[in-house]
Amino acid sequence: EAGVTQFPSHSVIEKGQTVTLRCDPISGHDNLYWYRRVMGKEIKFLLHFVKESKQDESGMPNNRFLAERTGGTYSTLKVQPAELEDSGVYFCASRPDSFLGEQYFGPGTRLTVT
Amino acid sequence: AQKVTQAQTEISVVEKEDVTLDCVYETRDTTYYLFWYKQPPSGELVFLIRRNSFDEQNEISGRYSWNFQKSTSSFNFTITASQVVDSAVYFCALSANRDDKIIFGKGTRLHILP
Fold first, then answer.
1. Each residue of A86-97: pLDDT tens digit?
2. Does any CB of chain B come closer than 8 Å to the CB of residue A106?
3. Separation between Cα atoms, residue B95 and residue B11, nearest integer Å
4. pLDDT at residue B100 tops 90
5. Which of A60, A71, A92, B57 is deepest in the core (most CB within 10 A)?
6. What share of chain A is helix, strand, coil (3-state, %, to 5)?
7. B26 in contact with A at a CB cutoff of 8 Å?
8. How distant is the Cα of A89 from the closest Cα of chain B, in angstroms?
């Protein structure tokens, strides 16, 4: 079974540009989460999808961040326009819709805004 | 509010020594889950363990063991006979219920010296 995959693994962009991160959850996992770790700080929750619906987006930092999950499969996280403080590692996790399910994390996307 | 504190930012030990990573948590929920994740140099987050708040039994898995004490709100992680491959950043984490966001500590970077 393939794990959670994220693309790209690393992105370097200039301040003001737009970047789109993609997450492919484990097949069949209804729950999809985005987290990020900015330099030196803890990993923080951004939002949670159940299928295509946003269950909890309380962690989204501001309206420069837009997450979508069309069709309830893969998800994208767009940052527009990117700022220096957006630099960090963005993790995606997925979980099956079962009581025993764990959140399985992807390898992360390292975003560098210069 | 929920919070996870990992007071040890960085630890270095010589191979084969035992090492304990400390974790203290705060939550007002009576039902919650505690986790440990490992982040090796390759960057992915690897799930190690999940405990629920009603199960205070210590757990051992090979060289790894976990000590959960509700009285002190601690969930410490011990590696016995450490190996170089154990070098990684270790995150302690908390969630109020299985479907909720995970709150991470800042992580402890562990160096195992040959």
1. 999 999 999 887
2. yes
3. 26
4. no
5. A92
6. 5, 50, 45
7. no
8. 9
Q: How far apart are CA A99 and CA B7, in angstroms?
A: 32
Find the length of chain A.
Answer: 114
Report the alpha-carbon distance of residue B89 to residue A100 in Å, rounded. Answer: 26
- The count of residues in chain B is 114
pLDDT band at B97 (very low <50, low <70, confident <90, very high): low
Count Cα neighbours of A67 within 13 Å in the Cβ-side half-sphere: 28
Would you call A104 an interface residue with chain B, using a CB distance cutoff of 8 Å? yes
Gap between the Cα atoms of B78 and B71, Å rounded: 19
How many C-beta neighbours within 10 Å does residue A8 have? 13
Q: What rounded mean pLDDT belongs to chain A?
A: 92
End-to-end CA distance of chain A: 37
